[in-house]
Amino acid sequence: MQAPQFLASQARNPITIRLRKILGTNFTDEATTEALRTLVRTDTDITLAVEDHREGLNETASRARKNLRRDLENKLAQGSQQFLQAFSEVDQKLDELQKHVAAMRVACDEAETQLRLSSEASQSLLDRAESLRSEREEVEMRKSIVMLFLNRFTLSDEEAEAITSRNVPIGPRFFEAMNKTEHIRNDCRVLMTGEDGPTKAGLDIMASTSSYLEQGYEKIYRWCSFEFRQMGRDIQLEVGSTMQQAICRLSQRPELLSEALAFLTQTRQTALLSAFLDALTRGGPSGLPRPIELHAHDPIRYVGDMLAWVHQAIAAECEFLESLFGLGGGQEDDGRARRMVGAVRTFGGSEEEGWVKELLNSAVTKLCVPLKMRVQQTVRSQESSIVSYKVANLLQYYLLTMRRTIGEDALLSTTLSEITEVSYKVFFDAIEAQGRALLRISLDPDDPSLTPPFPILEHAQLLREIMQVYDSSLLDDTTSEPGRTFNRILDVMLDPAMEMCAAAAEEKARYRPQWDRAVFVLNCWCYLQNVLEAFEFTSEKRRTIQEKIDERVRLLEDEHYENILRDASLYDTVVIIKSKSPSDPLSHVLPAQQLQPTLARFSLWLSSPEVVHSPRLSALSSPSLHSTIHHVSLGRITKAYAKLCEEVRKPENRYEAASTLLGMERPFGQAGVLWAIFGLEEETEESAVD
Asked: Which residue ranges make up each domain of the chain?
């Protein structure tokens, strides 16, 4: 019973099952061969079986089955012993390691305790170090703030030296220090506007910077005063950028600027006066240009040279002052275009322009006395009215120029205005004296000429020269003062001439016919009007003269009409028609026997050359007046003839065969034919008479 159980247990043995599986396996593959080689190291029989595998698989397998169990059990027993021995060593080592670990644990606990104590101690040190680092950063930040504050609100030693030291000249370094001082004060004012009011630091900063500024302004004042004393020695001056900055800076202290400019005014007055006197007596360098007083015999050039020199000096002075105050340049600060030459100079409300105007007026003050004295002496010594007018006109031009340049209130403008007044007074006195002299002239009564006499021609020539001077000048009546218009000159010169012509005509009336007197007056007045014709500015006076001419022409037309009536034998007939009583028939006053010869003589007169050209009017110098007077008179003759025909045809005038009476002679009782004979256009209100 045990044998079957054993076999059954063997059959269920995993090793047996595994061996059977191995023995039944094909050992020709490489993996199986490698496994068998591994078993060689454990059993010799297996090794032999493997080696003899190729010789006989069955034999080897049989042998292996017999020895395999035994060998495996032995190997297992040996392995177990080896494992036990190894595990005993491991157990021993583990005991030692456990003891060592326990010792290490104790040591670690002690180390941890020491670390904890060290960590607590180092943490306090770290906290202290962090606190010190924070305090250091705060101190550094405060230091940088203080340094920035000091750099912004205090001056460095070099900057303070630039302001206070006399060894540092006025220049860029000085102005930079002044600019920083002003910036400090401006920033400090902002800091002092807080809710708590001004701080002590702010007050101290303002006090210290104020001291520096005062010293700086005082330094600028001393430098400008010295430079101004040097500037006054030359006529032509140039202003550098340093001087411009100094004046701009000093303008913030008007009292110091005023004191400094007082030196400039004194030196400029002296320099300009000296230069003017040198120009009068010595001339320019090396004698060129020549002295102005060498031309004293020529009043126009003499006065013109003096005024031109003064004008040039003022222009140079004005340019210097504008550069001094920084008002020059191609474009003004507000964008306006720069003033053109000759244009009116307008002084705005800026403080700099006020200084320029005041200094310009003061600089030329001393020139007024010598200029006024010489010009007045020259003007009063003139006997020629045309020369006096040229000088007065020249003065008037420069007066307007100076007013545009330096203003009306300037002393030089006032002086020129006085000189111009004197010059015009001398001129008007001269032409008024000529007018009075013209009225005292007595013409030869036996002179048959009806043309303007020689005194009138000479007087008109003088007037023509004066008008040419005025026309060629740059003046106009709108810019002149009251009483300076040219109309006054025309009145003073023409009124006496016209009165003289009328008075001369009255003298001629004693020895000449009344007709010649009227023609003489018209010839003289028309000549004077023609003298004015070439100048537009005489239009008002020409209208006045034309009104007087028209009045004289109307008188001459009446006289010429009466003369034509007499020549045409119609005078008595016209008088009868006008003077007869309306109740009396015209045929009773002017019978047909008397009217027929009258009409015949009138017809004969129509064939004479007097109808086209009247010898009586040939003495008129104006062809237009000749034509006008004659045509007007012929028109009145035509109207008189038409009136005669109308009266003759009226039944109440009791003419027998009135149409036959009128149709016997030209113009056959037709006024339209008479208009055609005279070469006149028929008036619209006149109708043809059948």
From this structure: 15-139, 161-271, 272-332+342-440, 568-678
What does the DSSP 8-state code read for residue 331? B
The residue type of 137 is E
**Three-state secondary structure along 123-162?**
HHHHHHHHHHHHHHHHHHHHHHHHHHHHHHHCCCHHHHHH
DSSP 337: B
| Neighbouring C-alpha atoms within 13 Å toward the C-beta of 17 | 6
The percent of residues in the chain predicted with pLDDT above 70, rounded, is 81
The residue to which tokens 């550094």 are assigned:
140
pLDDT at 617: 84
pLDDT, residue 664, reads 80
* Contacts (Cβ under 8 Å, ≥6 apart) of 489: 389, 428, 431, 466, 470
Answer yes or no: is pLDDT of 73 > 80. Answer: no
- pLDDT for the residue 333: 44
Q: In angstroms, rounded to a whole number, what is the distance separating the alpha carbons of residues 678 and 682?
A: 10
Task: Look at phi and psi of residue 286 and say left if phi exceeds 0, alpha if psi is from -120 to 50, else beta.
Answer: left
507-563 pLDDT, tens digit per residue, is: 765 656 777 788 888 999 999 999 999 898 899 999 999 999 999 899 888 888 998
Q: Which two tokens stand for residue 408?
A: 């009306």
Closest CA to 307 of 330, 280, 283, 284: 280
Closest Cα partner for 625 from 616, 345, 149?
616
Range with lowest mean pLDDT among 36-40, 81-85, 125-129: 36-40
* Gap between the Cα atoms of 378 and 300, Å rounded: 9
Q: What is the pLDDT of residues 651-687, one digit of tens each?
A: 888 888 777 888 788 888 788 888 888 877 765 444 3
C-alpha closest to that of 320 among 404, 259, 236, 433: 236
CB atoms within 10 A of CB 79: 11
Residue 345: closest CA among 378, 314, 389: 314
Strand residue runs (E) in 458-593: none
DSSP 344: P
Instruction: DSSP for 305-363, please give it.
Output: HHHHHHHHHHHHHHHHHHHHTT--SSB-TTSPBPPPTTSPP---S-HHHHHHHHHHHHH
Q: How far from 677 is each of 318, 603, 642, 670, 680, CA to CA, in Å?
A: 77, 11, 14, 11, 8
Neighbours of 41 (CB within 10 A): 9
Q: Look at residues 488, 504, 497 and name the one whose alpha carbon lies nearest to residue 531.
A: 497
CA distances to 63, 224, 447, 514, 563 from 511, in Å: 205, 87, 10, 9, 20
Residue that is written with structure tokens 């003062």 in the block = 481
Q: Are 345 and 408 in contact (CB under 8 A)?
A: no
- Spatial separation of the C-alpha atoms in residues 227 and 232, rounded to whole Å: 9
Number of H helices and E strands in the chain, helices first, is 25, 0
Instruction: Identify which has the larger pLDDT, 8 or 559.
Output: 559
Gap between the Cα atoms of 180 and 653, Å rounded: 120
Say if residue 401's pLDDT is above 80. Answer: yes
Non-local CB neighbours of 527 within 8 Å, separated by 6+ positions:
452, 456, 457, 460, 621
Identity at 433, one-letter amino acid code: A
pLDDT tens-digit series, residues 413-444: 999 999 999 999 999 999 999 999 998 887 77
